[in-house]
Design goal:
With 303 residues, the protein is α/β, with parallel strands linked by helices. The chain contains eight helices and 13 strands. The protein binds guanosine-5'-triphosphate, magnesium ion and zinc ion (ZN).
Protein backbone atom coordinates (compact mmCIF):
# COMPACT_ATOMS: atom_id res chain seq x y z
CA UNK A 1 0.00 0.00 0.00
CA UNK A 2 1.22 3.47 -0.91
CA UNK A 3 0.06 6.20 1.42
CA UNK A 4 -2.20 8.73 -0.22
CA UNK A 5 -0.31 11.90 -0.87
CA UNK A 6 -1.11 15.29 -2.30
CA UNK A 7 1.07 16.58 -5.11
CA UNK A 8 1.73 20.18 -6.10
CA UNK A 9 -1.73 20.51 -7.69
CA UNK A 10 -3.35 19.34 -4.47
CA UNK A 11 -4.42 16.14 -6.17
CA UNK A 12 -4.04 12.74 -4.66
CA UNK A 13 -2.82 9.33 -5.55
CA UNK A 14 -3.39 5.95 -4.01
CA UNK A 15 -4.14 2.33 -4.67
CA UNK A 16 -7.03 0.76 -6.52
CA UNK A 17 -8.43 -2.15 -8.49
CA UNK A 18 -8.67 -2.10 -12.26
CA UNK A 19 -12.32 -2.49 -13.27
CA UNK A 20 -11.68 -2.59 -16.99
CA UNK A 21 -8.92 -2.03 -19.48
CA UNK A 22 -9.60 -0.18 -22.71
CA UNK A 23 -6.31 -0.43 -24.50
CA UNK A 24 -5.13 3.16 -24.06
CA UNK A 25 -6.42 3.58 -20.53
CA UNK A 26 -8.00 1.81 -17.60
CA UNK A 27 -10.93 2.37 -15.25
CA UNK A 28 -9.80 2.15 -11.63
CA UNK A 29 -11.85 1.72 -8.48
CA UNK A 30 -9.99 3.85 -5.97
CA UNK A 31 -11.15 4.51 -2.45
CA UNK A 32 -14.58 6.06 -2.81
CA UNK A 33 -14.39 6.89 -6.53
CA UNK A 34 -13.80 5.52 -9.98
CA UNK A 35 -11.17 7.13 -12.18
CA UNK A 36 -10.02 6.90 -15.76
CA UNK A 37 -6.25 6.54 -15.71
CA UNK A 38 -3.78 6.70 -18.55
CA UNK A 39 -1.03 4.12 -18.82
CA UNK A 40 2.53 5.18 -18.17
CA UNK A 41 4.52 4.14 -21.14
CA UNK A 42 3.73 1.96 -24.10
CA UNK A 43 4.86 -1.26 -22.55
CA UNK A 44 2.61 -1.11 -19.52
CA UNK A 45 0.02 -3.87 -19.79
CA UNK A 46 -2.79 -3.61 -17.28
CA UNK A 47 -5.86 -5.77 -17.11
CA UNK A 48 -9.11 -6.19 -15.27
CA UNK A 49 -8.47 -7.26 -11.67
CA UNK A 50 -4.99 -5.76 -11.40
CA UNK A 51 -4.11 -3.98 -8.15
CA UNK A 52 -2.41 -0.72 -9.02
CA UNK A 53 -1.08 2.52 -7.62
CA UNK A 54 -2.17 5.65 -9.42
CA UNK A 55 -1.18 9.26 -9.19
CA UNK A 56 -0.74 12.56 -10.97
CA UNK A 57 2.68 13.01 -12.54
CA UNK A 58 3.70 16.71 -12.30
CA UNK A 59 3.16 17.63 -15.95
CA UNK A 60 0.21 15.38 -16.76
CA UNK A 61 -3.36 16.57 -17.15
CA UNK A 62 -4.89 13.46 -15.67
CA UNK A 63 -4.16 10.53 -13.41
CA UNK A 64 -2.04 7.66 -14.60
CA UNK A 65 -0.99 4.23 -13.41
CA UNK A 66 2.27 4.30 -11.49
CA UNK A 67 2.77 0.63 -10.75
CA UNK A 68 1.10 -2.78 -10.73
CA UNK A 69 1.26 -5.25 -7.87
CA UNK A 70 2.52 -8.73 -8.76
CA UNK A 71 -0.42 -10.86 -9.92
CA UNK A 72 -1.62 -13.90 -8.00
CA UNK A 73 -2.70 -15.36 -11.31
CA UNK A 74 -3.45 -14.30 -14.85
CA UNK A 75 -6.26 -15.76 -16.93
CA UNK A 76 -5.55 -15.78 -20.64
CA UNK A 77 -7.17 -17.18 -23.66
CA UNK A 78 -5.49 -18.00 -26.90
CA UNK A 79 -6.52 -16.40 -30.14
CA UNK A 80 -6.79 -18.13 -33.51
CA UNK A 81 -3.03 -17.79 -34.03
CA UNK A 82 -2.23 -19.33 -30.68
CA UNK A 83 -1.22 -16.06 -29.06
CA UNK A 84 -2.10 -15.59 -25.42
CA UNK A 85 -4.48 -12.74 -24.72
CA UNK A 86 -4.98 -11.65 -21.10
CA UNK A 87 -8.57 -11.60 -19.80
CA UNK A 88 -8.34 -10.92 -16.06
CA UNK A 89 -6.01 -11.19 -13.09
CA UNK A 90 -6.18 -12.10 -9.41
CA UNK A 91 -9.27 -14.28 -9.45
CA UNK A 92 -10.35 -17.13 -7.17
CA UNK A 93 -12.94 -18.92 -9.23
CA UNK A 94 -13.85 -19.61 -12.84
CA UNK A 95 -17.63 -19.88 -13.22
CA UNK A 96 -18.66 -21.48 -16.49
CA UNK A 97 -22.13 -20.42 -17.56
CA UNK A 98 -24.35 -22.61 -19.75
CA UNK A 99 -28.04 -22.55 -20.64
CA UNK A 100 -30.50 -24.68 -22.55
CA UNK A 101 -30.36 -21.91 -25.18
CA UNK A 102 -27.92 -21.49 -26.94
CA UNK A 103 -27.28 -25.24 -26.91
CA UNK A 104 -24.18 -25.94 -24.81
CA UNK A 105 -20.87 -26.75 -26.39
CA UNK A 106 -19.64 -29.29 -23.82
CA UNK A 107 -16.19 -29.45 -25.37
CA UNK A 108 -15.83 -25.78 -24.57
CA UNK A 109 -17.06 -26.38 -21.01
CA UNK A 110 -14.42 -29.09 -20.61
CA UNK A 111 -11.76 -26.69 -21.79
CA UNK A 112 -12.81 -23.97 -19.42
CA UNK A 113 -12.80 -26.42 -16.56
CA UNK A 114 -9.40 -27.74 -17.58
CA UNK A 115 -8.23 -24.12 -17.65
CA UNK A 116 -9.46 -23.60 -14.09
CA UNK A 117 -7.75 -26.79 -12.89
CA UNK A 118 -4.45 -25.80 -14.50
CA UNK A 119 -4.53 -22.47 -12.70
CA UNK A 120 -5.59 -24.02 -9.38
CA UNK A 121 -8.84 -22.09 -9.45
CA UNK A 122 -12.17 -23.23 -8.10
CA UNK A 123 -14.46 -24.33 -10.90
CA UNK A 124 -18.22 -23.80 -10.86
CA UNK A 125 -20.85 -24.61 -13.47
CA UNK A 126 -23.76 -22.15 -13.51
CA UNK A 127 -26.80 -23.30 -15.43
CA UNK A 128 -28.75 -20.16 -16.30
CA UNK A 129 -32.23 -19.74 -17.84
CA UNK A 130 -33.79 -22.30 -15.53
CA UNK A 131 -37.14 -20.92 -16.72
CA UNK A 132 -36.50 -22.51 -20.14
CA UNK A 133 -36.14 -25.94 -18.54
CA UNK A 134 -33.00 -28.02 -18.11
CA UNK A 135 -34.20 -31.52 -18.92
CA UNK A 136 -32.15 -31.99 -22.10
CA UNK A 137 -28.91 -31.12 -20.33
CA UNK A 138 -29.44 -33.06 -17.09
CA UNK A 139 -27.40 -36.11 -18.23
CA UNK A 140 -24.37 -33.89 -18.85
CA UNK A 141 -24.87 -32.08 -15.56
CA UNK A 142 -24.94 -35.43 -13.79
CA UNK A 143 -21.65 -36.40 -15.38
CA UNK A 144 -20.03 -33.18 -14.14
CA UNK A 145 -21.50 -33.58 -10.68
CA UNK A 146 -20.13 -37.14 -10.59
CA UNK A 147 -16.69 -35.63 -11.26
CA UNK A 148 -17.25 -33.26 -8.32
CA UNK A 149 -17.75 -30.10 -10.34
CA UNK A 150 -20.23 -27.99 -8.42
CA UNK A 151 -23.30 -27.13 -10.53
CA UNK A 152 -25.93 -24.54 -9.62
CA UNK A 153 -29.15 -23.83 -11.50
CA UNK A 154 -30.46 -20.27 -11.69
CA UNK A 155 -32.52 -17.88 -13.80
CA UNK A 156 -31.29 -14.31 -13.99
CA UNK A 157 -34.64 -13.40 -15.54
CA UNK A 158 -36.81 -14.56 -12.62
CA UNK A 159 -34.25 -14.38 -9.82
CA UNK A 160 -34.55 -18.10 -9.08
CA UNK A 161 -31.44 -19.39 -7.29
CA UNK A 162 -29.70 -16.00 -7.39
CA UNK A 163 -29.60 -15.46 -3.62
CA UNK A 164 -28.00 -18.90 -3.11
CA UNK A 165 -25.51 -18.22 -5.87
CA UNK A 166 -24.60 -14.90 -4.28
CA UNK A 167 -23.90 -16.63 -0.97
CA UNK A 168 -21.70 -19.13 -2.80
CA UNK A 169 -19.67 -16.34 -4.37
CA UNK A 170 -19.17 -14.35 -1.15
CA UNK A 171 -15.64 -13.49 -0.13
CA UNK A 172 -14.06 -14.25 -3.47
CA UNK A 173 -13.48 -12.99 -7.00
CA UNK A 174 -15.28 -14.94 -9.72
CA UNK A 175 -14.72 -14.71 -13.45
CA UNK A 176 -17.75 -15.57 -15.59
CA UNK A 177 -17.04 -17.33 -18.85
CA UNK A 178 -19.17 -19.13 -21.39
CA UNK A 179 -20.66 -18.93 -24.86
CA UNK A 180 -22.12 -15.69 -26.08
CA UNK A 181 -25.81 -15.40 -25.20
CA UNK A 182 -25.92 -17.69 -22.15
CA UNK A 183 -26.66 -14.67 -19.97
CA UNK A 184 -23.39 -13.80 -18.22
CA UNK A 185 -24.09 -10.07 -18.24
CA UNK A 186 -27.70 -10.70 -17.20
CA UNK A 187 -26.39 -12.70 -14.23
CA UNK A 188 -24.11 -9.84 -13.22
CA UNK A 189 -27.09 -7.49 -13.25
CA UNK A 190 -29.17 -9.91 -11.21
CA UNK A 191 -26.37 -10.36 -8.64
CA UNK A 192 -25.45 -6.71 -8.40
CA UNK A 193 -28.48 -4.43 -8.87
CA UNK A 194 -26.27 -1.34 -9.18
CA UNK A 195 -24.28 -2.94 -12.01
CA UNK A 196 -25.33 -2.07 -15.51
CA UNK A 197 -23.60 -4.79 -17.47
CA UNK A 198 -24.45 -4.56 -21.12
CA UNK A 199 -26.90 -7.24 -22.16
CA UNK A 200 -28.68 -8.04 -25.37
CA UNK A 201 -31.65 -5.82 -24.38
CA UNK A 202 -29.80 -2.78 -23.16
CA UNK A 203 -27.18 -2.12 -25.76
CA UNK A 204 -28.27 -3.24 -29.17
CA UNK A 205 -26.52 -0.67 -31.33
CA UNK A 206 -27.15 0.33 -34.93
CA UNK A 207 -25.42 -2.79 -36.15
CA UNK A 208 -27.38 -4.97 -33.76
CA UNK A 209 -24.36 -5.73 -31.58
CA UNK A 210 -24.97 -6.25 -27.90
CA UNK A 211 -22.28 -8.55 -26.85
CA UNK A 212 -19.77 -7.84 -24.10
CA UNK A 213 -16.44 -6.81 -25.58
CA UNK A 214 -14.14 -6.32 -22.64
CA UNK A 215 -13.84 -7.88 -19.19
CA UNK A 216 -15.42 -5.75 -16.46
CA UNK A 217 -15.16 -6.08 -12.68
CA UNK A 218 -18.26 -5.53 -10.50
CA UNK A 219 -18.05 -5.46 -6.70
CA UNK A 220 -20.61 -7.66 -4.94
CA UNK A 221 -19.49 -6.62 -1.47
CA UNK A 222 -16.36 -5.50 0.36
CA UNK A 223 -14.51 -8.73 -0.44
CA UNK A 224 -16.52 -10.22 -3.29
CA UNK A 225 -16.55 -9.39 -6.96
CA UNK A 226 -17.72 -10.82 -10.24
CA UNK A 227 -16.07 -10.24 -13.60
CA UNK A 228 -18.19 -10.22 -16.73
CA UNK A 229 -16.16 -11.33 -19.73
CA UNK A 230 -16.87 -11.56 -23.43
CA UNK A 231 -18.30 -14.88 -24.60
CA UNK A 232 -15.51 -16.69 -26.35
CA UNK A 233 -15.54 -19.77 -28.46
CA UNK A 234 -11.80 -19.93 -28.92
CA UNK A 235 -10.93 -20.39 -25.28
CA UNK A 236 -8.18 -22.76 -24.33
CA UNK A 237 -5.93 -22.62 -21.35
CA UNK A 238 -2.50 -21.65 -22.64
CA UNK A 239 0.05 -24.23 -21.70
CA UNK A 240 3.75 -24.53 -22.15
CA UNK A 241 3.71 -28.25 -21.48
CA UNK A 242 1.89 -30.71 -23.68
CA UNK A 243 1.19 -32.88 -20.66
CA UNK A 244 -0.68 -29.98 -19.11
CA UNK A 245 -3.79 -31.15 -21.00
CA UNK A 246 -3.89 -34.22 -18.79
CA UNK A 247 -3.95 -32.28 -15.54
CA UNK A 248 -7.07 -30.45 -16.66
CA UNK A 249 -9.10 -33.68 -16.77
CA UNK A 250 -9.26 -35.06 -13.27
CA UNK A 251 -10.55 -38.52 -14.18
CA UNK A 252 -7.78 -38.95 -16.78
CA UNK A 253 -5.10 -37.61 -14.50
CA UNK A 254 -6.24 -39.96 -11.74
CA UNK A 255 -5.88 -43.05 -13.95
CA UNK A 256 -2.64 -42.11 -15.67
CA UNK A 257 -0.53 -43.67 -12.90
CA UNK A 258 -1.78 -47.06 -14.07
CA UNK A 259 -0.60 -46.65 -17.69
CA UNK A 260 2.35 -48.84 -18.69
CA UNK A 261 4.43 -45.87 -19.76
CA UNK A 262 5.11 -43.14 -17.28
CA UNK A 263 4.92 -40.52 -20.01
CA UNK A 264 1.82 -42.04 -21.63
CA UNK A 265 -0.11 -39.44 -23.62
CA UNK A 266 -3.20 -41.71 -23.71
CA UNK A 267 -3.39 -41.48 -27.47
CA UNK A 268 -2.13 -44.69 -29.16
CA UNK A 269 0.17 -46.15 -26.51
CA UNK A 270 -0.25 -49.83 -25.57
CA UNK A 271 -1.52 -50.71 -22.09
CA UNK A 272 -3.01 -47.31 -21.54
CA UNK A 273 -5.25 -47.33 -18.46
CA UNK A 274 -7.14 -44.29 -19.70
CA UNK A 275 -8.16 -45.84 -23.01
CA UNK A 276 -9.06 -49.06 -21.21
CA UNK A 277 -11.33 -47.04 -18.92
CA UNK A 278 -12.98 -45.34 -21.90
CA UNK A 279 -13.71 -48.72 -23.48
CA UNK A 280 -15.06 -50.01 -20.17
CA UNK A 281 -17.37 -47.00 -19.91
CA UNK A 282 -15.63 -45.62 -16.82
CA UNK A 283 -14.55 -42.43 -18.56
CA UNK A 284 -17.12 -40.65 -20.70
CA UNK A 285 -16.16 -40.84 -24.39
CA UNK A 286 -16.92 -37.13 -24.81
CA UNK A 287 -14.57 -36.19 -22.01
CA UNK A 288 -11.86 -38.33 -23.58
CA UNK A 289 -12.50 -36.70 -26.95
CA UNK A 290 -12.23 -33.27 -25.26
CA UNK A 291 -8.89 -34.33 -23.84
CA UNK A 292 -7.66 -35.48 -27.26
CA UNK A 293 -8.71 -32.22 -28.89
CA UNK A 294 -6.95 -30.15 -26.26
CA UNK A 295 -3.88 -32.38 -26.44
CA UNK A 296 -3.69 -31.98 -30.22
CA UNK A 297 -4.15 -28.25 -29.95
CA UNK A 298 -1.25 -27.98 -27.50
CA UNK A 299 0.85 -30.20 -29.71
CA UNK A 300 0.14 -27.93 -32.66
CA UNK A 301 0.95 -24.81 -30.68
CA UNK A 302 4.16 -26.31 -29.37
CA UNK A 303 5.43 -27.22 -32.83
N1 LIG B 1 -35.30 -17.01 -20.66
C1 LIG B 1 -34.23 -16.43 -20.10
N2 LIG B 1 -33.46 -15.60 -20.84
C2 LIG B 1 -32.39 -15.03 -20.26
C3 LIG B 1 -32.04 -15.28 -18.90
N3 LIG B 1 -30.91 -14.60 -18.63
C4 LIG B 1 -30.56 -13.95 -19.77
N4 LIG B 1 -31.45 -14.21 -20.76
C5 LIG B 1 -31.42 -13.66 -22.12
O1 LIG B 1 -30.30 -14.16 -22.84
C6 LIG B 1 -29.84 -13.19 -23.78
C7 LIG B 1 -28.35 -12.98 -23.68
O2 LIG B 1 -28.04 -12.40 -22.44
P1 LIG B 1 -26.65 -11.67 -22.15
O3 LIG B 1 -26.65 -11.43 -20.68
O4 LIG B 1 -26.44 -10.50 -23.03
O5 LIG B 1 -25.62 -12.84 -22.55
P2 LIG B 1 -24.01 -12.86 -22.42
O6 LIG B 1 -23.64 -14.22 -21.96
O7 LIG B 1 -23.55 -11.72 -21.59
O8 LIG B 1 -23.55 -12.68 -23.95
P3 LIG B 1 -22.14 -12.08 -24.51
O9 LIG B 1 -21.90 -10.76 -23.85
O10 LIG B 1 -22.38 -11.98 -25.97
O11 LIG B 1 -21.08 -13.09 -24.18
C8 LIG B 1 -30.64 -11.94 -23.50
O12 LIG B 1 -31.65 -11.83 -24.47
C9 LIG B 1 -31.20 -12.17 -22.11
O13 LIG B 1 -32.42 -11.51 -21.88
C10 LIG B 1 -32.90 -16.16 -18.13
O14 LIG B 1 -32.70 -16.44 -16.95
N5 LIG B 1 -33.95 -16.70 -18.80
MG1 LIG C 1 -22.30 -10.14 -22.02
ZN1 LIG D 1 -2.31 -43.75 -20.93
Amino acid sequence: MVAEQKDSKGLIGGTGTVLASYGRGVLVQAEGMTLHCALSGRKQRIICGDRVTWGYPPSADGPSIQSVEPRRNLIERIDARGRAEPVAANIDRLAIVVAAEPAPDWFLVDRYWAGAALKDLDGLLIVNKLDLGTEPIQPELKSYRDLNLKCVEVASLTGAGIADLERGLAGSVTLLVGQSGVGKSSLVNALSPQAVAQTAELTRDAEGRHTTTTARWYALGPTSAIIDAPGVRDFAPPASLVRAAERGFIEIHRLSVHCRFKDCRHMEEPSCAVRTAVVAGEIAPRRYESYRRLFRLYEKLAS
